Amino acid sequence: MQETEETEEQERLSYQQRLKAAVHYTVGCLCQEVAEDKEMQFSKQTIAAISEMTFRQCENFARDVEMFARHAKRNTVNTEDVKLLARRSNSLLKYITEKSEELNQERKAKKKKQPKDGNQSCREPAEAGGGDSES
């Protein structure tokens, strides 16, 4: 029992280290782009500090949206939770709202097309199967 808990903890830490490495890599790439654009440089310590702050902020965001969903008596985080998180940044909230509306419109368009396509593809295998049977 204790070995299982230790293994799970090691896996969680390993996963967290991989996430941190991915954040660090991405921050490094972004800093390099900014450095080239602005003709300046970032020290390794600065990149590491930005990476650590970014990772911690993402952890906080994740906890917050999870709590928003729980407060709404849901198990799944949705766009409303993300909008609530972004409420203090007008530009970010506007961007998220626009993207959310675009996704909703795309889903509605797919749903309108799906019954036509779905019915045809459902009939084809049944028709093909019916013609091959010996009964």
Task: Note down, in words, how this protein is organized.
The protein is an all-alpha fold. It has a domain at 1-55: Histone, subunit A. Helix content is 85%, strand content 0%. The protein is built from 4 helices and no strands. It is extended, with a radius of gyration of 24 Å. One of its GO terms (molecular function) is double-stranded DNA binding. It comes from Cavia porcellus.
The tally of helices reads: 4
Largest sheet: none
Strand content: under 5%
Query: How far is it from the N-terminal to the C-terminal residue, by CA?
Result: 57 Å
Query: What's the pLDDT, averaged over the residues?
Result: 88
The portion of residues assigned to helices is over 70%
The CATH topology assignment of one domain is: Histone, subunit A
Rg (CA only): 24 Å
What is the CATH superfamily of one domain?
Histone, subunit A
CATH architectural category of one domain: Orthogonal Bundle
GO molecular function, one term: protein heterodimerization activity
GO biological process, one term: cell division
Family: Belongs to the TAF9 family. CENP-S/MHF1 subfamily.
InterPro entries: CENP-S/Mhf1, Histone-fold
